[in-house]
Amino acid sequence: MWQILFLVIVVLFFMFSFVLLFGAPYLPTLTKQVDAAVELAGLSPGDTILELGCGDGRVLLRAAKHGLNAVGYEINPILFLVAYLRTRRYAKQISVIYGNFWNKHWPAADAVYVFLLPRLMPKLEFKVKQESLVKPRVISFAFQFPGIKPKSVKDGVFLYEL
Ligand SMILES: C[S@@+](CC[C@H](N)C(=O)[O-])C[C@H]1O[C@@H](n2cnc3c(N)ncnc32)[C@H](O)[C@@H]1O
């Protein structure tokens, strides 16, 4: 019994810590900040938001409640599964994709939402420019692009037009 519990703890620890090799560890955005993000980016029903590292899917769900389409990438298999199952009732609006967003070619989106880490922001700037989005709008919770002035700020959420 104890061996099984130990194994479960080790597996969970590994799942949540290996992500540090690729990006930010799991920490959720609050509803207030998601609403601020939608408002800041001037998104309207029918627009698409792309979330890089969608965690348990809460931002995707909130976006769908605003009438948006939402696509999220998630690299942690447990969180991917949680996000996938939680968002099934909005399957027409929400897609959850398993994998590392740095290695993917992103779908078309009206804005990109992130809650990452300061050290990843320069790499993100490079990747956004590489993806040649039609409207390169990035909404970042908590962390800023070094040397770039945000277009607007609300409740700790920064809007950039790169
Ligand atoms: C700080 S959490 C934010 C979760 C969610 N965006 C939110 O705001 O509630 C960062 C998330 O990104 C995921 N992540 C980190 N690096 C990633 C990568 N390279 N590709 C896909 N997901 C990644 C983590 O597993 C984690 O769920």
List the defining traits of the structure above.
162 residues; alpha/beta; Rossmann fold; 5 helices; binds S-adenosylmethionine
Give the secondary structure arrangement, pairings included.
Layout: H1 2-17, H2 31-40, E1 48-52, H3 58-65, E2 69-74, H4 77-86, E3 94-98, E4 111-114, H5 121-131, E5 137-141, E6 152-154, E7 157-161
Helix pairs in contact: 2-3
This protein binds S-adenosylmethionine (SAM).
Residues 19, 22-24, 26-29, 51, 53-55, 58-59, 73-76, 79, 100-102, 115 line the site of S-adenosylmethionine.
Q: Could you explain how this protein is built, in words?
A:
There is one protein chain. The protein has 162 residues and is an alpha/beta fold. It has a single domain, classed as 3-Layer(aba) Sandwich (Rossmann fold). Helix content is 34%, strand content 20%. The protein contains five helices and seven strands, in the order H-H-E-H-E-H-E-E-H-E-E-E. It has helices at residues 2-17, 31-40, 58-65, 77-86, 121-131; strands at residues 48-52, 69-74, 94-98, 111-114, 137-141, 152-154, 157-161. A seven-stranded mixed β-sheet has the order 3-2-1-4-5-7-6. Helix 2 (31-40) packs across helix 3. The longest helix has 16 residues, at 2-17. The chain starts with a helix and ends with a strand. The relative contact order is 0.16. The structure holds S-adenosylmethionine. Residues 19, 22-24, 26-29, 51, 53-55, 58-59, 73-76, 79, 100-102, 115 line the site of S-adenosylmethionine (SAM).
